[in-house]
Amino acid sequence: MFPLPNPLLALAEIGSNRLLALDPAIIQRCVGLQGRCIAIEFTDLELTLYCHPGNWGIRLSQEAPPGEVDATIAGRLFALLNLSIEDDKISTSIRERVSINGDARVAQQMQKIFTDIDIDWEEVLAQYTGDVLAVQIHQQARKTARFVQQGLNSLMQTNSEYLREEARMTPHQAEFERFQNEVTTIKYDVDRAEARIRQLSRILKDNGKI
Amino acid sequence: MPKESTTHFGFNQIPTEEKQRRVADVFDSVASNYDLMNDVLSFGVHHLWKRFTLELCGLRPGHRVLDLAGGTGDLAIKQAKAVGETGQVFLGDINAAMLQQGRDRVIDKGLSGRIKPIQCNAEILPFADNSLDCISIAFGLRNVTDKGKALASMQRVLKPGGRLCVLEFSHPIYEPLEKVYEFYSFKILPKLGEWIAKDRDSYQYLAESIRMHPDQETLKQMMLEEGHFDEVGVYNLSGGIVALHRAFKY
Hints:
The complex is a heterodimer.
Chain A: H1 6-21, H2 24-32, E1 38-42, E2 47-54, E3 57-61, E4 71-75, H3 77-85, H4 92-96, E5 99-102, H5 104-115, H6 121-129, H7 131-166, H8 173-206
Parallel strand pairs in A: 1-4
Antiparallel strand pairs in A: 1-2, 2-3, 4-5
Helix pairs in contact in A: 2-5, 6-7
Chain B: E1 6-9, E2 12-15, H1 16-30, H2 34-41, H3 46-57, E3 64-68, H4 74-83, E4 88-93, H5 96-108, E5 115-119, E6 132-138, H6 147-157, E7 158-169, H7 175-196, H8 200-212, H9 216-225, E8 231-237, E9 242-248
Parallel strand pairs in B: 3-4, 3-6, 4-5, 6-7
Antiparallel strand pairs in B: 1-2, 7-9, 8-9
Helix pairs in contact in B: 7-8
């Protein structure tokens, strides 16, 4: 197992709890999961973290708890990060790379704690700058963000269309997923053929033919 | 004739019942300069160690917290802000002179409603079973005479799910750092105590008591076995010069 230095783990916990504390409704959901333990397995890092939600937010540990784990969410780092920031929008390919064992309801509630987080940045800012300035800064930031987002979306769409339709360098999303499904089907076919050959050679060996 | 029970006071062995009085003498002597000396001796880094401890206390509005060996109250004041008006912080210390400093500071900060000073012995805490969400003890455990008894007492008063955060000097995990630290502790630290606080002996005791304090793993085992905690995490700070032990009661 890949050991994560404890201070790094503590910083991850502190960061998560600071974020969760900004949305009181989310903390209440953590309270609802108090006493539960959710294991998060990063398969590519060979790292397992145990997440204990409660009225403090969440607590992270690398040591397995004395009791049973309620649910295990396993997957590659990228897939798990996507799972924690997106909900229904995650593509099928990412969803397939994440597995959930144990109490699926607990795992889903844990996931939704992160996906449903809704921070009132204006309120947070107001604590430092006062209401009047916070409203102005927030409005300006929203305008800028919208402008940047529109620009990026437009740029990405133009580039994507150019690469797909004009230069024909990349496939369409649906085309890519069909190809991926075909690769998966071939993989399973090869696995089955391998198992069949192994079985036949065992039968021949048992009959003394080879 | 029964053998007299002894314990360490710095590098000296003394009768167990005498340790409490000798430690009290040290803190009576350093109380007035305590915060200044902490800033000077740690180069101000003790504020970061305490901030880290506060974050891992996981405090929320409404929590009931005990800051043991809280002395001048710098951690308790931060905790009071985290637990809000609905919460309660108890500033506990066995030493009246230190507690007086803490109480004055709490009043100056306008937090006397949220922070209640209590003169108490960590070995026999005057709280009901399962009544606190969190206990912290920063740079105090090494001065407690019977650490196992104190840890068990803390476990008793914590609610199930509650946590104990012990911030204490420990043993550096890198060899070159250990040599530098040892030189600083035994050669420079007592001299600084002599020059600034006019009290060499108390700071000589500080260096010796740090050396005699259990290392990270020993303290962890002590918390599990004698304190009956269910889980303990260790966080080395500044290369292990200080370690935070966070224990949970299930």
